[in-house]
UniProtKB/TrEMBL annotation:
Its cofactor is pyridoxal 5'-phosphate. Keywords: Aminotransferase, Pyridoxal phosphate, Transferase. SUPFAM superfamilies: PLP-dependent transferases. The lineage of its organism: Bacteria, Pseudomonadati, Pseudomonadota, Gammaproteobacteria, Oceanospirillales. It holds the Pfam family Aminotran_3. This is Adenosylmethionine-8-amino-7-oxononanoate aminotransferase. It comes from Halomonas stenophila. Belongs to the class-III pyridoxal-phosphate-dependent aminotransferase family.
Amino acid sequence: RPTTDRPVLDTQTLWQKDKDHFIHPFTDFSVFHEEGCDLITDSEGIHVQDSRGNRFIDGIAGLWCVNVGHGRAEIGQAMADQATRMAYFSTFNNLSNAPAAELAAKLAELAPAHLNHIFYSCGGSAANDATIRLVHYYFNRLGKPEKKRILSRNNAYHGTTYLAATLTGIESNNWDFDTLDHLVTHLSEANCYRRPEGMSEAEYCDHLVREFEDTIAEVGADNIAAFIAEPIMGAGGVLVAPEGYHARMQAMCRANDILFIADEVVTGFGRLGHFFASEAVFDTRPDIINCAKGLSSGYAPLGATLISDEIYEVLGTPQRKGGVLSTGFTYSGHPVSCAAALKNIEIIEREGICENVREVGPYLEEQLRTLSHHATVGDVRGSHFMMCLENVADKITKELLPVEARVGDRVAFEAQQRGLIIRPVGHLNIVSPPLIWTRGTVDRVVAILDEALTAATASLRKDGYL
Ligand code: PLP
């Protein structure tokens, strides 16, 4: 679609307003105060465009979320239709709306068979936060009020509300922030690339299961409410656990009356080739699945907690005469967001987007692995449309480059100069594209990355880091 029919933006003024007033999340202010932000002004399909007219392939689906791609007019139309028919009304006190009801039924149909009850929120952090509150309430109702502790993992990312930030295990995310430490115990992440030397993957899995067992023994099963895990850890470095890990963790949870919560905020809605990865890919049946992001492909803010029949039986009865389930948000089940999600799901099904991921995903993995010959590429990992390059100083020792070398930034910068946006996270580069990439797109992207890595390596050499 030509961009000329769109209103012209006064980008210099916008840049200034943004710099003066918008507190950006996860932004380095030492750079921001000097340079401000690039404005992304237009998008279409797999591309986005900045205010200077530069067009890029979107290699990160916005932020792991624009799963069906950009510029879907039919999602915009569904939202506009709903906004003009009935933009908002309460879902408290026995009121509902059509898209929220339709979507709840659709999610129950798509999810593993025992997850039939949906609690809505406005994003992933809020979904995780609401879930922990509901889990505590559930155990209180069962007469087990001491079951409060949540087991999470180092390097997990579960969001930034107070509680979600506490679940999060990426240390730098909480620098100088407070956390609610009495509620959460962190276990080791499952990092096959950096597992202890000499351990096979199977032994490593045993090792992690033993640590889990020891933690249960130490904290006491009577004090533990739940274990929360991303099926593949995303922002923490796209870490794929050893074969059988999740199923074994779930078995241990079952045996100890601990709920198993899957945070599918990234892995849900097609990124691994299925609407939900828990059962289809990892052979687990979580008590609760959380989702957001790809649920609406980012066209509107929305999160959802998918709850088992067994838990709902408790949540769905009043705690006392006249009592209500007193938790939820003004925008729980927002009609415009739910309308966006319904159209998004219709597109995923109609266009066979999960099938595309199952077809193109292994090709993306294989082609990205051809980049392993570059001096800095220590590991290429991930699955399907959730991939990552780990940059190192030394491939044998896996030693990292110094932080000030900013290797992830360098690779991302060189890629962006060549028309591709990927995400730097410390020494990592993440590729988590819209799910409509074809084999042809993969070829273009890998050619760009090949050049970008060559250029980044040259600049690291020039600056004396290699
Ligand atoms: N959970 C996971 C696995 C995520 O990756 C994210 C965001 O990246 C969140 C939760 C938080 O979601 P949100 O940013 O929508 O609050």
